[in-house]
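Comment thread on ticket #2218

A.B. wrote:
> Attaching the input chain for the structure job we discussed in standup.
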Amino acid sequence: MRYDVLNLILGWTLIALMVPLAICGFLTLILDGWQLAATAFLPAVLISGGLGAALLGFFTRTDSSERLRDLEAFVGVGLVWPITVLIGAIPYWLGGVFVGPMTDGAGLVDMARGFANSWFESMSGFTTSGATVIAHNMSPNCIPGTTPDCINAQPQGLLLWRSLTQWLGGMGVVMLGMLVLSRIMGGGMALARAELTGPSLSRLRPKLRQTAIVLWSLYLLLTLVELLCLKFIGGMSFFDSVNHALTTMPSGGFSTRDASIGFYNSATIDTIIIVFMFLAGVNFTLIWLAGSGNIKQAFRDEEFRTYLWYIGIAVAIITITLVVANYAAGQSLRYTLFTVLSIGTSTGYSSTDYGTWPVLARLVLLILMIVGACAGSTSGGLKLMRIRLALKIAFRELSRIAQPRKVQMIRMNGEVVEQKQVGLIVGMLFIWVALFAVSVILLAFFMPDESFETIISVVAASLGNTGPALDAYGPSQTWASMDSGALFLTSILMWFGRLELLTAIIVLHPHSWRKEEKADGELQAMAMVKRIMADREDDEAQNKVA
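C.D. wrote:
> Ran it. Output below, let me know if you need it in another format.
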């Protein structure tokens, strides 16, 4: 590991984080007053800037930018998230959303729990999970029996920060390798291609940075269009429109109301959000191609066609289930379409309490939590591309039993998938299943009184970055009843889910953290052994000839 390079990545990220913190601090000054702005955001800006400057000034070399490799790229991407989350938690803690040092009469235990809540809320935001712990028993701003809506009672500047964390995190995985790590075209491109699995990146713009700018521009444009639609067509207030536009396109799900979208009880608002949730689950390169006039090319994409069938079948099954259970047909279709897209794209909004739906409907929703939507989108989950390729691999292996000599290549969009990519997909699916099983066991240890459905759905919602789960942690409930251990575990699972596992594994692997000198020495030793073995084999061959 080249630690100077890692410090360079982390340092510039912390410097960049000052910008959204300062913007939200300024808006808090206007909306809530200078005292809250100074208390909540000034320390975060100073800490982020100070640490970033220290890393760049004292722990990097003049040639650090020229020493970037794939290892530092992946580890840097992995570590950026928890560090950003830690800084992002400070406004909640100091701003009074949760019990902190500025809360009157707060004890150390209460402040510690308040920091755990702040960490969780920040992680849920940046990973676009959407689960929240803002509740009457956790927030000093909410008085049980007096405050009707706890989330809406929070300062507007802090609600904006909460929404902005999701908007920034939504494109983070897709774009971080392009923008922050664009100097190493190999590592940055590899990470981008792993996420943008539709058309190749070169089809958008010739350079990686240009492609990143194009996709970020599209992201911003869709956010602005949704804002205008919610304000002028849906009739939302400007403040609510801004917040929901910031949390829909990243498939985040944070709302300004306890009841989420269900608060508005508006078919118009539901329809607007349904459209943009659908777009959030589509590979952004396909949206760009469709907007550029290449609609046929976009519809030829295998994953997109699978996405349409996937959503359509889920909607049909749940709607029929609800109608059979004596729900009204019209409302069943409306709420089903909203919920399927919300869960399937890992957005996590709720327009109704789907926790009361029949078992079959909840089972379909659980599958949606696990699978997610398209690769290259802002959604979480395993991604449809991986599931489709895994099925192709399974069918190929089954066909080999009947026709062992037949050569059958795995193809996606008419192009042959390389064997190393096939192996990577199989490996990631295996790791995901193993991680899911271990996480269920660990969470059951922290939550011994919860039902099996609750444990399973919370793990699925965390790894899939969905947010609301089922049963006790469904759409009508917050996650505030979890103890600090369970909150920390689920926050780590959110981190794993957002990093698509591969980056997280590289970060946690001990080999990644070996010093450069030691690693180089081991490589030289292995090379020497190989040369000795090769020379010995040559000598033996010559002796046999003689």
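A.B. wrote:
> Thanks. Noting for the ticket: The longest strand covers residues 411-412.
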